[in-house]
Amino acid sequence: MKIDPTKPADLSAQIAKAIKDAIIAGDLPVDERLPSEAELADQFNVSRPTVREALKRLAAQSLIRTQRGATGGAFVNRLRFEDAYGQQITTSTLLLSMNAVSVATACEARYALERACAPLSAQRRTADHLATMRAEIHRQRQPGLTDEAFCASDVAFHRALVDAAHNPVLSYQLAGAVEAMQPLMNMITFTARSRERIIALHTAIADAIDAQDGPKADENLAQLADYTQALARDVIARRAAAQGVK
Amino acid sequence: MKIDPTKPADLSAQIAKAIKDAIIAGDLPVDERLPSEAELADQFNVSRPTVREALKRLAAQSLIRTQRGATGGAFVNRLRFEDAYGQQITTSTLLLSMNAVSVATACEARYALERACAPLSAQRRTADHLATMRAEIHRQRQPGLTDEAFCASDVAFHRALVDAAHNPVLSYQLAGAVEAMQPLMNMITFTARSRERIIALHTAIADAIDAQDGPKADENLAQLADYTQALARDVIARRAAAQGVK
DNA sequence: CGTTATCATATGTCAGACGTTTAATTGTCT
DNA sequence: AGACAATTAAACGTCTGACATATGATAACG
After folding, report:
1. In DSSP terms, which residues pair with A65 in a beta bridge?
2. Strand (E) positions, chain B?
3. Residue B3 CB closer than 7 angstroms to strand C?
4. Does nucleic acid strand C have an atom less than 7 angstroms from the CB of A47?
5. Residues A76, A28: contact at Cβ < 8 Å?
6. CB-CB neighbors (< 8 A) of B176 in chain A
7. Is 0.90 topped by the overall pTM?
8. Is the pLDDT of residue A8 over 80?
9. pLDDT exceeds 60 at position B204
């Protein structure tokens, strides 16, 4: 892994890649301490700042953690699901906002994925997740709730639904899809009537999950998907009309 | 965004976070040029190396790109789906390998997600993706194929299946789940008989997608999921037995 | 034996300098 | 005047050397 010809591009990027590859290949087990910055600099024949830039690149991806002091250094980090959630969410959010992904496309993806874990959630739901779902529904009923708070509660409800499948890989994947949608959803102004409809569907979903009725949960999710899409279309149409008038 | 009290932790991490937040908030539009390193150093009251470490952190996440020369500098990068694929895949791969996620859990997640887009793929498939699927099936029939090559072709087949849904958000999400499974799948030794069965199911899936028969595709995917799980269980049981003997 | 002081190590940060890349500017020639 | 070539300046990439700081290990002391 000492390969580093000074031919093409940034040394720090090359070094980061070399170490990253070593980690992925399993040559550097979790919690293994990397050589000190000075040693790495010597090994790669570069200066310490260059090595540090490489290490910061890895730290940004949670691949390593650093510790100061006598027994400090850079250690291969065990990538935890919670850490990955965060990265996944910001990446997804930026993808949607920077690529002008339509609400329709994002919605479709989100509900397709959610429906994928509905059967599992129905099968394995525990009192814990069920309670969270009920609590969020209760919160959504509060009359004074702002649209943002309503959306946040919506996200919490759906995360509980996903987590009920008790599959961390699914939860991780879905976290991005669900949370990244929130900024798009925040554009929607929820009228009292649309909130009522959404809450009714949420209740139906919670009931189906409670009854371990996968198909029923799926059906209600499908309806919720349709309704959300319709709301979004409405907002966009109204916005286009307003622009036309102006 | 100039907030930077020298209270808690690494300055470079704080600076990176400040800039990242500005990008996410939309204060820094795509392709906007950041101030030069010297200017940033001045603004944050730190040295240039510290600023550089912060910028490298952002570069590692593809949030910025840098350009040398007279009109060079750091620019806010438009995060492309292809860039996100790579990050998603390495993150997923490390998550699975470092957290001892069972094959069962990973398999379940992968096939649940894949089945989520089967109906969409059936509906929207084009000749392009169908051809890829058929080509990969043909490759899988080659007798001399190594297990690794067979797995790689398997991944290509499933990616084509996912891409056929023509929803970039879904493709992005699924890329991680499908590709991250490959190292786990590589543990499996595919006998001639198991390959035959997998190829038969692949063919059935391709046929269903061709005929725009979503339910049928879903059913065959479910069978493939079951069969893959059974193969994995077999490998693990055999390995446990070998260990017991030894 | 326990507590405290010292020390060594490694990261975090800084300052200044030089090389290289690249585009814009200038200057000259036709 | 216009086109091509040389100069220049801005910015990143890298290096050297140094100091500050955190932290565990060790040694000294009561």
Report:
1. A75
2. 64-67, 73-76
3. no
4. no
5. yes
6. 173
7. no
8. no
9. yes
